[in-house]
Write a structure and sequence with these properties.
By secondary structure, the chain is an alpha+beta fold. It is built from 7 helices and 14 strands. Strands 3-2-1-4-5 form a 5-stranded antiparallel β-sheet, with no helix packed on it. The chain has a 5-stranded mixed β-sheet with strand order 10-9-8-13-14. The structure holds copper (II) ion.
């Protein structure tokens, strides 16, 4: 992960929040591990053993390490649960694990999907550069175009949601501060329920990760499932870090890793069916009704 620009205000905000009484103390989410040898690997999943958390993968040659072959790798519970035979993947191979070779950071490997994401990323990069000092999108402006992967590994573009009302926020799955991301996700779930009860028929909820390095589609899927989230209209999105960072700029998000802890602010936005941002609240101190009351019903 590249170093993010140092943002004292955001760090201070996170530290203050972490120090609030009643909050769990922030603990390092990603203490820098001693460098373990790893190699990029691509291949096809041929068999999944979710119970043993083992994937059998027919992989291509791993440069400087081994020729193409079919072999077993241990993976996380999230990766084992999400994996499907026949799926092409890219991953990091850690060969020196005493429990046997291990795969991490598993992403779908699909040239068509990657081209779509790359094209959207380039367009967003250009747009971000062109906006210059006006990068930040105010209420009244339109949603930027983007294409990211959802928790199923499918490419989702913003344009797909034209005609829908979108509630969008940013979270990351390892967030240890209960008043931040976990509270934000609980609030999003409450909106999902209340909007349905209020007769809102065309709502799409989107949570974009602040931590694409760790939050792969499978990690996001496990996060959603652990919370019993109904995926019918609530997607979790991830993708290349460069694209996510441009979205930070466009949505006024400050996020930076410092000593393994991600300090960040939070924003929640409501987008109307024409793609216009119509309401925004910073932080997690908002009531679901605040957004549901602004949605078109029926
Ligand atoms: Cu957080």
């Amino acid at each position: 992960m590249q170093a993010l620009p140092f943002r004292p205000a955001a760090l201070l905000a996170a530290l203050l929040l972490a120090a609030l009484p009643g909050c769990r103390r922030a603990t390092p989410a990603a203490a820098p591990a001693p460098a373990e040898k790893h190699y990029p690997l691509t291949g096809e999943v041929v068999q999944v053993d979710a119970t043993r958390k083992i994937l059998r993968v027919r992989h291509e040659a791993v440069a400087d390490y081994m020729p193409a072959m079919t072999m077993e790798f241990s993976v996380s519970a999230a990766d084992a649960a999400a994996a499907q035979a026949g799926q092409r993947i890219r991953a990091q191979l850690y060969p020196d694990d005493p429990r046997g070779p291990r795969l991490e950071k598993i992403w779908p490997l699909d040239p068509v999907a990657e081209a779509a994401v790359a094209a959207a990323m380039d367009a967003l990069r250009q747009d971000t550069a062109m906006r210059g000092r006006q990068t930040y999108r105010e209420v009244g402006e339109s949603l930027p175009d983007f294409a990211l992967y959802d928790q199923e590994g499918q490419v989702v573009s913003a344009a797909r949601f034209r005609g829908k009302q979108i509630l969008l926020n940013f979270i990351y799955t390892r967030c240890p501060i209960v008043t931040m991301c976990p509270a934000a996700t609980a609030n999003m779930m409450a909106v999902q329920r209340q909007a349905l009860a209020a007769g809102v028929t065309n709502l799409q909820l989107l949570s974009i990760t602040l931590d694409p390095e760790y939050d792969t589609p499978a990690v996001l899927k496990a996060y959603a499932q652990a919370r019993g989230i109904d995926p019918a209209n609530f997607a979790f999105l991830t993708g290349p870090e460069r694209e996510i960072r441009d979205l930070f700029a466009q949505f006024g998000i400050d996020a930076e890793f410092k000593n393994g802890l991600l300090s960040h602010n939070l924003a929640t936005l409501l987008v109307d069916p024409n793609g216009k941002i119509i309401w925004r609240v910073d932080g997690t101190q908002w009531k679901p009704e605040e957004f549901v009351s602004r949605m078109k019903k029926g």
